[in-house]
Write a structure and sequence with these properties.
globular, 72% helix, single chain, 404 residues, 19 helices, mainly alpha
């Protein structure tokens, strides 16, 4: 007989995976999107019915993202005459925040500990690692729905695996055992299998730095230094003698082209296309600074941008202003404020039960600067917010129980 708790945990993990859009660009992406929207509809129903039982911060962001959805659809209709139906499809990533309400409700109602949830998420991250390893080995390619584009392994969403890496990285500092940092590095390495990713490595290092700062008085810091001392000579050798190392060095050097005063012809194509997209976006931001132009359906994008290649996820905060205007940017600032409170004044150690998710929130917010991720895919942010608040709720209950 399967326990009810196990069924609930399975639903939570499925909702979590779908909220992270882990199956995006694959052959089952369309069906996963429909299923995630169905779960989100249930979540929104629960949110409306039990509105006052949700923590204040979850209620605030729930209302803000609902308003963002409405404003995005209306803006796209008024500015570019996009139909409301197309607007809903274009902004479907915002509707997925409903999954987070379902996750919160199930975790609280069935008294599932955050540690149990962490283990389930880690299991999911390993499952996806094995799946990605298989797809990488067979050189998988997925055609787009229109058939015009082909997506390779490097385009697949790796959020669940990165969350697993951050959980292990944090546990290394909390439990002071080498195996956790080995697991973290192994999971995180999936980002670089197909092509070295500069910015995500930088974000990972920032998270490591935040953990070092908060746990600086523990012996784990010495272990990190020992690892660095061992790795640096190995990395230096790899960079100087291998093709991967030379490509890495080339990509890092290309970043500095942005700071050259008269540079117009960029060596790195990814930098060049981001500059072009930013110039186009800034012109539109000047016209519609308050609400932005809304999210545009991919099949109608070329009518609006006069180009087949324009992705707001390529231009980060500029993309947020382009799509959502000042209103969207203010939501991002509120996300930053929440992160600041979550990490300030020793809160990471004081509420160690949810430290892993606070560090991943840092990962998400820094990543948003370049990709707009926390607003373009707000389901991820809301799920992490929910887990942090569940941890806080369980910690408060534990304190009350200890006093009694």
């Amino acid at each position: 007989m399967i326990k009810k708790t196990h069924i609930v945990l399975l639903i939570i993990v499925i909702a979590f995976v779908l909220a992270f859009d882990a199956l995006a660009l694959t052959s089952v992406a369309k069906y996963a999107k429909y299923f995630s929207m169905a779960l989100s509809a249930v979540g929104f129903g629960i949110f409306g019915f039990y509105f006052r039982k949700f923590p204040k911060i979850i209620r605030q962001f729930g209302v803000l993202f609902t308003l963002l959805l409405v404003i995005s659809i209306i803006s796209a209709n008024l500015i570019h005459n996009q139909s409301y139906f197309s607007g809903i499809i274009a902004s479907s990533s915002i509707t997925i925040v409903g999954s987070s309400f379902l996750i919160y409700y199930l975790l609280i109602k069935y008294s599932i500990s955050l540690e149990t949830a962490k283990r389930s998420i880690l299991t999911a991250s390993w499952v996806f690692l094995v799946l990605f390893a298989f797809l990488y080995a067979i050189h998988i390619q997925f055609p787009s729905s229109s058939g015009e584009n082909i997506f390779g392994f490097q385009s697949l969403r790796k959020g669940i695996i990165n969350l697993g890496a951050i959980i292990y990285l944090t546990q290394f500092f909390k439990r002071n055992h080498f195996k956790y940092i080995v697991f973290a590095i192994l999971l995180f390495s999936v980002n670089h299998w197909a092509d070295f990713q500069r910015y995500i490595l930088f974000v990972f290092i920032m998270c490591l730095g935040a953990l070092l700062f908060n746990y600086r008085n523990r012996t784990v810091g010495l272990k990190v230094m020992a690892i660095v001392i061992f790795i640096v000579p190995v990395v230096a050798t790899v960079f100087s003698t291998t093709e991967f190392g030379q490509e890495f060095t080339k990509k890092i050097n290309n970043v500095f082209e942005l700071f050259e005063e008269d540079s117009e012809n960029y060596t790195d194509s990814s930098i060049a296309i981001r500059v072009t997209q930013s110039v186009f976006a800034i012109k539109n931001i000047a016209k519609y600074p308050l609400t932005g132009v809304g999210r545009i359906r991919s099949s109608e994008k070329d009518k609006v941008t006069d180009t087949k290649y324009f992705h707001v996820s390529d231009i980060g905060l500029i993309g947020i202003l382009y799509s959502y205007g000042l209103f969207g940017f203010l939501i991002f600032l509120k996300q930053c404020q929440y992160l600041w409170k979550a990490l300030a004044r020793g809160a990471l150690i004081r509420e160690s039960i949810n430290a892993e998710f606070k560090i991943f929130l840092l990962f998400l917010i820094i990543h948003t600067i370049l990709t707009g991720r926390s607003l373009n895919s707000p389901g991820e942010f809301m799920c992490i917010l929910v887990l942090i608040e569940v941890g806080r709720h369980q910690l408060q209950n534990k304190i009350i129980a200890d006093v009694e």
